[in-house]
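Entry 14. Ran structure prediction on the chain below.
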Amino acid sequence: MNEASPPKGQEKVGWNRPGSYRVPKMKYFWEFLFTNHFNAMENQLEKIRHSLSHLLAHAVQDMFADVKFGIGPTIENGFYYDFELPRPLTPQDLPKIEKRMKNLIRQNIQFEKKELSPDQAHQQSKGQPYKLELIDELAREKKAISYYISGKFTDLCAGPHITTSKEIPIDAFKLTRIAGAYWRGDEKNKMLQRIYGVAFLTKADLDAYLKRQAEAEKRDHRRIGNELALFTFSELVGPGLPMYLPNGTILMRQIGTYLESLKTAQGYEPVDIPHLAKNELYKTSGHWDKFKDDIFHVKGKVDEFVLKPMNCPHHATMYASMPRSYRDLPVRYAEMTKMYRDEQTGELHGLSRVRSITIDDTHIFCRPDQILEECGRAYTIIKEFYRTFNFPLKVELSIRDPKHPEKYLGDDAIWKKAEDTLAHLLKTLKLNYTLHEGEAAFYGPKIDFKAQDSLGRTWQLSTIQLDFNLPERFQLEYTDEAGKKTRPVMVHIAVAGSMERFLSIIIEHYAGAFPTWLAPVQVAIITVGKAHGTPARKLHAKLKAAGIRTALYADNETVGYKIRTAEKLRIPYTLVIGDKEVKSSRLHVRIRGKKQLAVMATQKFITRITKEIQARK
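Output, structure tokens:
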């Protein structure tokens, strides 16, 4: 990979099977064999994608002699490369560049590595300001400086790469799009042009991916959000600050109410905290140094405040507001609240990445002997919540990078204790998991739950994080059975996490066709003519009284138009009220996604809808 990390959110997703290279028992042989074969394929695919980024740069260099090169890492499903070019690229350029890349592949180009001194590297990258910046950084950190030579193209790179371009399946990659990208993700730097590509081991894999992407574009939550009037943005309000329209507010409240019911059943108590805090709060917690560039500052008449970038320090001070005995623990604080991050404008994307984040946040303060039970309670909530949305879950244990302990709060003993506790919890719950070094929160290890949506995409959503550090920094205490002052353990829990991001995912997961309990409008009532207005309004009132969210379409548009409107809004049930319905007192029910009408009495229909809502279907 080129000697710079990809921007936040673009990192390659890795695989790590703990113990997969040990075969203690014969019954694991086939799993062992498959795992190592799979890992070998993944490693080869990683090398192919990385090598394609170099061939992409080679092809661009053939087209633009005065190109300035940025970085070209691999990312999930593919690769990209950043360029400073004499003219803006257009979509019409991509097939031409791709054709050049395929011609290079056919030439059986060799990838050869060489290491250079800083002076030699400066000479090699003369006239390439972005590469020179990276070279200077490597030299300061006393890291090796290496290049890869591939045909007429030489690039600063740590590797690894394939041996020869003939290892690349020529029909299994595609350049997909062009985007702008600030150098090193900093808006203060120059905007470069980024070319994205995807690559796989077979054409069939590529075709399947492109098909999924086409479906994902149809389901884009920004488009569906506009169609269903869920949320909006305004330049007057500011980028990254979503505002929820009535339909979107219903979605948020339904999910929030459901989460609250699951948490209440486990003994969690609601709290409410302000949106502001003094700087000292986050300096005490240790968040200031890590997040100071992402914090919004607010100046009062006398004091200076910040918009809260996280909630855990507030909850820690709430715990500290009164003396605690071992009998008082666990203390479980839960709330749905907003926090704020000053994300870069170029990284904002619909609801997926915003500046005002509605977070479902829970913090538990407990004794060490209560950790397993409390984490088990949290898992019960997470499992039930995602079962409701038909999201299968994968589990990961994220621990710190043992090579860089300076990136984390707390000493080795605290971290070992926390990591061992979570590993024991997963064993107790009999959950299979993958281990990820370097993915822990800066204050403690965590269990991450990844959900798979209807398009097969994986999203990291829920988390259980163990924290021995914040109780230490805030000097939190309780009196144990022997009368001794003791530190509690803090457990951070997020179920849906960012509600904005969760909404973007479920909008695309359901393609806007939400289950009945969640749908902003559950029943559409359509009149055939003016004479049917009165019975339609009576039915509308009856359904609303039963707690059913209903929309009445009694205007002068044609019946066909009103039915198409209800279909476009993905309303689960549609009732057309005409002479036949008024005379028979029976409803002809159009069910979303079904051609055949269902005929039933009004009360039976109400019972059916009510049961669906109660069962969250």
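The chain has three domains: 26-218, 225-510, 523-614. Will compare against last week's run tomorrow.
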